[in-house]
Amino acid sequence: MKLWSQFFIPTLKESPADAEIASHKLLVRAGLVRKLGGGLYTYMPLGLRALQKITQICREEIDGAGGIELWMPHVHPAELWEQGPRWAAAREIMFRADSAGDGKRAGRDPEFVLGPTHEEIITPLVKAEITSYRDLPKNFYQIATKFRNEIRPRFGLMRAREFIMMDSYSFDANDEGAIKSYHAIKAAYEKFFKRVGATAIAVEADTGVMGGSFSHEFMIPAEIGDDDVIYNEESGYAANREKATSGIVPKDLADAAPAGALEEFATPGVLTIAALEAAPYSVPGDKQFKTLVFIGDGKPFIVIIRGNDELEEAKLGSLGFTVTRAATAEEIEPVLGAKPGSLGAVKGTIKNAGALAGVFADHAIRLIGNGTTGANKDGFHVRNVNVARDLAITSFGDFRRVRPGEPDPKSGQPLKVRRGIEVGHIFKLGTKYSEKFGAVYTDDQKQSHLMVMGCYGIGISRTMQALIEQSHDADGIVWPWSVAPFQVLICLLDPKVEEAAGVAKKIATAAEAAGADVLIDDRDERPGVKFKDADLIGIPLRIVIGSKGLKDGVVELKWRTSKEVTKLPLAEAEAKIAEAVRTAAAKS
Amino acid sequence: MKLWSQFFIPTLKESPADAEIASHKLLVRAGLVRKLGGGLYTYMPLGLRALQKITQICREEIDGAGGIELWMPHVHPAELWEQGPRWAAAREIMFRADSAGDGKRAGRDPEFVLGPTHEEIITPLVKAEITSYRDLPKNFYQIATKFRNEIRPRFGLMRAREFIMMDSYSFDANDEGAIKSYHAIKAAYEKFFKRVGATAIAVEADTGVMGGSFSHEFMIPAEIGDDDVIYNEESGYAANREKATSGIVPKDLADAAPAGALEEFATPGVLTIAALEAAPYSVPGDKQFKTLVFIGDGKPFIVIIRGNDELEEAKLGSLGFTVTRAATAEEIEPVLGAKPGSLGAVKGTIKNAGALAGVFADHAIRLIGNGTTGANKDGFHVRNVNVARDLAITSFGDFRRVRPGEPDPKSGQPLKVRRGIEVGHIFKLGTKYSEKFGAVYTDDQKQSHLMVMGCYGIGISRTMQALIEQSHDADGIVWPWSVAPFQVLICLLDPKVEEAAGVAKKIATAAEAAGADVLIDDRDERPGVKFKDADLIGIPLRIVIGSKGLKDGVVELKWRTSKEVTKLPLAEAEAKIAEAVRTAAAKS
Prior knowledge:
Two copies of one chain form a homodimer. Chain A is α+β, with helices and mostly antiparallel strands. Helices cover 26% and strands 28% of the residues of chain A. Chain A has 15 helices and 32 strands. In chain A, a hairpin with a 2-residue loop joins β2 (33-37) and β3 (40-43). The mean pLDDT of chain A is 94.
């Protein structure tokens, strides 16, 4: 048991000025964290206790799924990252670590970097240590600090420069094994989130810069989440914004019959979809082709979507470029022959089609029959454009942003959208990293194969804050039992009265024996202050011991989740409280 | 319990080429660590288990001494270090953390640095959070990774770029309280080292760049240690090289009576103490003054020691300069009037005495009567020099290196010297940091005072390696019970024989119930391989279960510290092994 007076819980009445969301405010007000700098937080004693409990539950569940714990350095030789598949993109969010003294490497590539995740470290390690199929499968994990040089850290621990992650890496002999490892970890994640008291849902996700073949995000639903979840609870479909598709294009859609010949017409000053929707042109958005130009690894390429759709830029990741960005007007004109506003992809109108890396079309443009697009001539458009007849398309893909109400691709029911906080992410990586680092093993026929990898992460510090975001009220935090820094708070109203202190100690001992961590508020403060702080720091079970109650032979029991106060006869208090602890622990 | 086949212990027959010392070789050979880069190590699964046990024992002991655990960021805003008292010196060994992508800060001062220790972080935190005497004393600690940009990392975890430390910081209302806090931590350190099975001795130490008023190092004696301990076991005196003094100067020493007038004499070509000792001059080293010139914070100063003594450069730290370095010949000549070889400090011979920041003399020069020193005229010396009469000394101090056999300052008995590994260091800091950061509190009279600080560190990863250095034999590691990654290793010689595997599981269960962590070697390997690995990884208690033994109704028990093998009848095996576990645990 700990005494408040000998512990350190600096609660605050006011929220810090930079805290925009409830959980961030409560983290600071309840004395769980203090800000050192942008995105850099000290875990104060109470916060660290919650963090350690989350960590321990995570360790147990990953161990239970066969994970083997190790601990890799925070500082990485940059050359390993340079050898890996994502250095160009990753370095933008990484810290480099040079000598603070001499600045000798100023202007040069870094010698060391701080790890945001550890694929580039574990893969060469496994390559060096594992050579035989007999040592596979293996799943290594660590729970450690990660670093991202966030330009705009915000929301407390949600988007921080330093954060704590459980990251694990599976190595299998083949794809079948890798899928098995993936699902074992997915099941462990589900148990973990349940045990810490979080409602987390697994959603299909994009693999992004990490690469790989498939992926799920674990999201805790919350208004302030930084990610959209597109879902339908009946069908069970759930995907994040970058991955979500809808069933608006029927699978058996036939190409529209061309209605007439292509016809160029003047559209002076028309530079937007909206302008072409307006009179005198009156072309509906869903009858327009929107032609967008990007640069992928240095070469221009075209993406065509419907005029009334929005591009979901992350979906361009499926095209396989390492670095993608929007093209400038200066880059577009020499290739297409016109400025933005009059662009199109009708065969024969592209000035220098040979310069393009491709023309990629969203499936939904197949819904357009006899549409309109730019003529690649400033101030002109073309009508009666038909996909199959008129457009030179390299390949179709899913590039559009899904809207609520569109049909779920699984069941056709309307899709819904809600915000969520990403607290975990799992990837089936395939051989992307094992290829780069030569992580091969020999099978029982002495044949050599690439290992098939998966990688998996849980944001431990982020989960701590997400739990607060999910579980608080106007008075403060409402900790789930399993991760509460203390499970029982004894408010000792008259700490100097020996009898009261003695009762507190006895009850604390009984609660501890039943499995609770106990904090005794022995401060020389008014009851009102103690009760306010008790609500603020959110300990699940509160016991109040005061001289007045003791005269009546009672102590008071109150759950943080309820307003009800139960008076316990002193003679039964220890047993009743121990029983309450055991019941709560069994339920959690 | 863990199965070897599902765990990961990559043992090696050969030592890595860069391992110079036994513990470094064993760390790698036993599969406890793997090198990622110079001074950067991955803790492999077995190594991490030992590390976590040491960590937990440390946590319990520091908690027991009233320590309050928190966790501060690894990345620090550089401005806090700039505000602190030791930036100029510390930045030489620190990493800066900039963006890896743009290198915008190239050539400029860093925005962030990686913490080698956390005085500059905890002091402003406490200043912001504690304002009243009622919240004092407090001792905050963390167990976390620290960073030093070592130019020449070596000896494995001994001198690494990343290492794990327990660092704690005490804040008291006054000096008396600070001394009490210091001694509470010192006692906790002694318990910690005893519990992890280390023979560590507390030695008086220099406060160095950390500053402060007094200090102890905890040293584990070892040939390969990087530090000398000067000691006498009977008197109990123990100090490190930088701090050690000897009793060669009697306390009641009277100044020698001047024997004659100062006399300059020609010494062409004489540039060293040795040359003046030789004929025709024949001046013994202990009758010569050695005059050394340094630059302290930009100004030259003189240090005088006996000709036959060596300077202990770290002792110049007591002079209070922030940065000290040897002066060059070009810097010396304009001030003293001569080149090195003919330097001295006789009154009136220094060309520009006003430029000096001081003349500091080692106590032992007072043993010289009628000595010889340089004349500050190239090729000339002066004889009949007497300290009190002839030298303009700013102050006396202890600057010489102690030699074995010199009298212990406490008892006069001969001092001995041995090598040790520094595993802990505690400092009474005083108000050096609270002053810089304005960490004040208000007393019960509403008066404001500076908090009095102490800081304390234990090298957790270093202790792990030092334990191996202290406890190994030709076959491998001999882990102390308390920190062994597993306490019991069951060598299952015929893992495919169901009966044997069943017995192993039963015995493992009994040993675990008695409090041991159990590893079962279920690999498909020859007994010889298993026994060699068992000795190498050094698990304290080994149980051998084989089909042959089971036919005879026995299993074998062997301690790592003994060659003796005990045959246990199968019926008694569980009970006997559980008893052995309980006995070993009670002793550790």
